[in-house]
Design goal:
The complex is a heterodimer.
Chain A lengths: L4 E3 L2 E4 L5 E6 L6 E7 L6 E7 L2 E5 L7 E4 L6 E5 L8 E11 L2 E7 L3 E5 L1
Parallel strand pairs in A: 2-11
Antiparallel strand pairs in A: 1-3, 3-8, 4-5, 4-9, 5-6, 7-8, 9-10, 9-11
Chain B lengths: L8 E5 L4 E6 L7 E8 L6 E6 L2 E4 L4 E4 L5 E6 L8 E9 L11 E6 L1
Parallel strand pairs in B: 1-9
Antiparallel strand pairs in B: 2-7, 3-4, 3-8, 5-6, 6-7, 8-9
The chains are: A mainly beta, B mainly beta.
């Protein structure tokens, strides 16, 4: 396993277009998280899944954002009608939750979105 | 979730030991303390995690006093490649939601 994989690494899109990012977590991890990071700031939590269930969504996640994790494996994050303010690095992370708690919290390299 | 406070930036020289202290006055009983490192254009990378006392791994040590209201990340003999942003986080072992601050930008000079 090569860790958490995110595609594409970079995406440039015109304002108003829709974009979709993909995250492939570490295979044995049942938790998957999405974060957004703008320049000079720490990552901000967006949402997370346990298996295929989306358990929490941040208020940062407007109606234009939707995330899915079909079959509890990979996840997609879609942004509809992109705005310039959506320009950021979108990070995915995965971990395991067991009776002993959380373990192996690993981030991917992110998808850099630029809206022009 | 407990808010953390850490210095915005620090400078050091190659070969020195670097200690970054983080305060988390409102840490809850079930919260863990974890530190991440981030290089430009990369995702954060796990460094070390602890609940109390001292934890050591191959890259760092983490010191947590008995009241757990602060923690100190210790990096022995830093090199230029340790120049990065270091984040101190407190999180619940149940949800796993990490709340990042601005982190500490460490600049290692030759």
């Amino acid at each position: 396993d090569t860790g958490v994989s995110q595609n594409p690494r970079h995406k440039i899109t015109k304002r108003g277009q829709n974009v979709t990012f993909r995250c492939d977590p570490i295979s044995e991890h049942n938790r998957l998280y999405w974060y957004r990071q703008t320049l000079g700031q720490g990552p901000e939590f967006l949402t997370y899944f346990q298996n295929e269930a989306q358990l929490e969504k941040s208020r940062l996640l407007s109606d234009r954002f939707s995330a899915e994790r079909p079959k509890g494996s990979f996840s997609t994050l879609e942004i509809q009608r992109t705005e310039q303010g959506d320009s950021a690095m979108y990070l995915c992370a995965s971990s395991s939750i067991t009776e002993q708690g959380l373990s192996g919290y690993t981030f991917g390299s992110g998808t850099r979105l630029t809206v022009v | 979730l407990a808010k953390t406070t850490q210095p915005i930036s620090m400078d050091s020289y190659e070969g020195q030991e670097v200690n970054i202290t983080c305060s988390h006055n409102n840490i809850a009983t079930n919260d863990y303390i974890t530190w991440y490192q981030q290089f430009p254009s990369q995702g954060p990378r796990f460094i070390i995690q602890g609940y109390k006392t001292k934890v050591t791994n191959e890259v760092a040590s983490l010191f947590i006093p008995a009241d757990r209201k602060s923690s100190t990340l210790s990096l022995p003999r830093v090199s230029l490649s340790d120049t990065a942003v270091y984040y101190c986080l407190v999180y619940s072992g149940n949800t796993g939601k990490l709340i990042f601050g601005q982190g500490t930008t460490l600049q290692v000079k030759p």
